[in-house]
Amino acid sequence: MKLYYSPGACSLAVHITLEWIGEPYEAQRVKLGDPEFLKINPAGAVPTLDTGEGWTLTQAGAVLLYLARRFPQADLGGGETPREQAELERWSHFFTGDLHPAFFPLFMPERYTVSKDPAALHDVREAALLQIRKRYALLEAYMAGREFVVGNKRSILDAYSFPLVRWGAAKLPGGLAAYPNVASHHRRLSEDEAVRLVLADEG
Description:
By secondary structure, the protein is of the alpha+beta class. It folds into two domains: about 1-75 and about 200, Glutaredoxin; about 80-190, Glutathione S-transferase Yfyf (Class Pi), Chain A, domain 2, CATH 1.20.1050.10. About 55% of the residues lie in helices and about 5% in strands.
């Protein structure tokens, strides 16, 4: 398997998951927009995973679910019952469809207005912060009394949460101070040996 990643991006979740799985893989840093990378993934986005089976998979949520199902021995799938699987997919969709996109206008405000006025770009960023806070508040309430996102052991969702919470810690005024449950979970992940290894590798 080969992971194409960009430091600081959501591909960090897949990188962590691959370390937790413990099977051989290669990680290659790419520059988004590079013509050579566009030949591999025309969307130019990370994560992109060469599965080693003759096909390539994109989209963080899909890649993480694939890895959990391909390597069940790693026990990162959040459980086997229909309810456990539904919870895993519910929060995967929350990260993919709600929390992750809430950051886009903060990182790239120029994509969300035709105005070049700095005041308009500022307003886009402020609107993004409101949306991020709303989603963090949902996650904060859910994580009360929980050590992991789902079940009683780590899963792909813990890895998925890591970059999304890391962004908030860096970008939200006040960091994670208003979200102690989220912060506690993130802090525990930060102390994980595999997470530290991946962060050192990505620089």
